[in-house]
Amino acid sequence: MNVISSFSGGGLGERGVFRGTIGFANPALAGFAWPLFEARGEAEGPRLCVSAGVHVNEVSSIEAAIRLQSLFDPRRMRGTVSIIPLINQPALYRYTEYACPIDGKNINFTFPGRAAGTFSEALCDAIQHDWCAGAACYVDLHGGDLRERVAKFVLFQRTGDAGHLLNARGLAMCFDADLVVGLAESELAKPGRPPTGFAREGRLAVMSEAGANGIIDEESVAFHVEGVLRIARQLGIIEQAPSLYRRQRTVCDDYLWVTAPADGQFYAEVEPAERVRRGQRLGVMRNFFGETVGEIVAPETGIVLWRMTHPTLKQGAPALAIAIEETPRREA
Ligand SMILES: [Zn+2]
């Protein structure tokens, strides 16, 4: 990580506040600069890294990454909070959904990355092993691309390591979420989201999701901001954070994508955060003459995580997702 420009006068890594742009050493990432805010307290303490804009239209989370910067005062904190408000720089001003325009990959499913790989793979490697080196936790903020509405939820990675699981779950519970989803251990077998990529190395990352349709909404911004502040408090970086929880924080075991059974217009009959039963009709697909051409049915009993809001969907395209509530564990 090298400083390209400093707007704050101070150097990166010094006590106080740094605002500027940075680049990464990997030649695959040459020519790009990332905005970086870093607040470092007078007292030593852990490092917390926060990012948004892996998906550039998820604007409530990007807004949260901007507002968070004014909430960390180096005189009233221990350790370091480092924030990159927009990760997917190649997509900036292109409003690209999901993918990185350089290699077409979804950065969100590319962790832990690969130094010798494509742009997205090199970027994930730089985030995880350079910017987040030594970080106690990485929080990646998401939610509400141009054609979707998401419940307020948070993702952590389940692993066989009881200590890691407890810590990951505890950090995820810092968000006042409708749903707290623990990704299945099977995710660890392939490149994945930040919680997965970090867990593969025994490290901690969580992802928060809130927002809709590329529009900033204050409730979603507050959800992201307050969750990060509670994590900073949990890590011992700050003393105070909002303490009130209003949502259920239902812990879930799994995350199922439900696809459109036919080409057509999607008419949803459920909304994010609603409970659904296995076999319940969740929506219908109609053709351009208004005739029903397929029904979307719940594959399991669960809670709707997100749904597409733009009606036009191709057969096989994700229409919505359902989280499955955690099975109560029996006492031994
Ligand atoms: Zn996203």
UniProtKB/TrEMBL annotation:
Succinylglutamate desuccinylase/Aspartoacylase catalytic domain location: 45-233
Q: Which UniProt keywords apply?
A: Hydrolase, Metal-binding, Zinc
Name the needed cofactors: Zn(2+)
**Family matches, as Gene3D superfamilies:** Zn peptidases
The record's annotation in InterPro entries points to: AstE_AspA_cat (IPR055438), N-alpha-Ac-DABA-like (IPR043795), N-alpha-Ac-DABA_deacetylase (IPR053138)
The protein, known as? Succinylglutamate desuccinylase/aspartoacylase family protein
Q: Which organism is it from?
A: Dongia sedimenti
Q: What are the leading ranks of the lineage?
A: Bacteria, Pseudomonadati, Pseudomonadota, Alphaproteobacteria, Rhodospirillales
